[in-house]
Write a structure and sequence with these properties.
alpha+beta, 26% helix, globular, 4 domains, Immunoglobulin-like, five-stranded antiparallel β-sheet
Length: 576
Amino acid sequence: MRAGLLIILLLQVSGLLAQQHQDITFTAELSKERMLKNSTVEYNLTLRNAQGEQLTPPEFRNFEVLQGPNRSIGTTIINGVATSQMTLSWMLQPKRIGTLTVGAATVRAAGRTYRANSQSVEVLEVDTNALTAAPENFLRVEVSTDRAYVGQQIILDLNLYASVNPISRNMVREPDLDGFFARPRRRFDASPVGVMEGGREYQRRTLASMALFPIKSGRLQIDPYRMVIGAVRLRTNSSFTRRYTEQIPVNSDTVYIDVQELPQPRPADFSGGVGTYTANVQIDRDRMTTDDALKVVLQVVGQGDVQRLEAPTPVDEANWNIYDPQVTQEEFLDSPSGMFGRKTFEYQLVPKRGGEYTVAPTVTYFNTDSQAYVSLVPETFGVAVTGGSGQKTYTIDTATTADEALTLLPAPEVTGRPRIERNLAAQPLYWALMLLPLLLGGGLIGWTRYRQQRDARDPALVLRERAGKVAAARLKDARVHLQQVEPRQFYDAVEGALLTYLRDRFSLQVADLSRKNIQQVLTEAGADRGLTDRYDRLLGRCEMALYAGQDSAADLGETYATAVDLITETERQLRP
């Protein structure tokens, strides 16, 4: 018996040790895949979830080591799981052209030796003619596809390619995106990446990302984005060197998307969905009487515009009374791969007679991957129905408002002889009618001047004055979700209200609504350190709730009060 317990204990311990070793990783990475000979590349070695010793870095035979090793240590917590990492970095410059390799590295951790594989980079000769021809900086709109169907999701990324280090960005003009339903995305990779374009090296950074859904067919046009970036320059004369900021205009090109209608003929049960979807269905019982109502909940999730989805017919109408379903959930969820939609229908079905019935809701949509109509049958249920007593056990509101009939009332009888006033000038009505044109003319002139003054106001000033009201209206949505104890929708509404308020209050672009940039904008506007830190903590709390699963319902009231107080304090400290 004791021997058996000892064996079990040893197996458990070995399993825990194996799991611990599985969590330890040691990786190598070069910051570029292609580069010019006169440029530099960063080499990183990262050890996760362990304390390392006996590190053996590679020999940088083909590179000059300009800087390093630099050491950094950090910890991240996701869903309550902590991950630690230590990174060593070197700044390298290639000695020659060609495909150059940085060899493998090893380290000892938790009693084992871990190895990071070798990395390679392609080094190109500097082409002076290509450098002269290639633009120094440019904007580019990059779309996931330039051929799509009506309703298909298209991811648009606005990328800045810069050979300078921009210290400021100011969006001058954004396209109207006519012909598209657009959803801005907040969760995209905005970190700079080194790339080669036309013989020149650039730092590519995604400034904004959107999910576009075409609402009509034809060749749709996306007009250019126009932006001004600021770059630090040096101006030297005979006595001194001066730094100044150059304002550089950059524009994107016009982009065209060819959109076609969905193939004909469409299935009779087509739901309107375009994209890729999954479905889930639940029923509340499998045995019932004709006095009962069957509750069916159908949830559809996928990469597509769920607003286009219509409720399918879940059962045979010959055997069931089908009442109009309720949409209990309709939302968009951001992800690194695109925008996901989720829509939930809730049905109440009443059987017309007893019998054995099949409940199998079918969702038919157009799959953009296979370019064909697909029917989803998530699950099939059997329901046994017996006769009832005639006493309903359910309540369904089917009341309709009847139009009030138009009736003509008889005219009242005229009693007595009508009296005609001879002296009209003595009557107030006479003078009122005489002065009415003058009053209307004066009012029209005053209204015209008011509209001219209003239209001449700075739009940014108008947005700043309205920012508090707009934020208060957005926070009303958060209050509704607070009362209904819906944590995810609540945190999404709070985050959206704060970002919208800050965007309008400080005339920011969507791409500038990062936590770091928000702190800088508030500080430059005169906000104290406490206010900027509270914004950062609250936005961080929303991010953890939305994207790390830490959406405890216990914190909703405190979060709502903090959001209201932040907006109030911002208006007090930073008066327009």
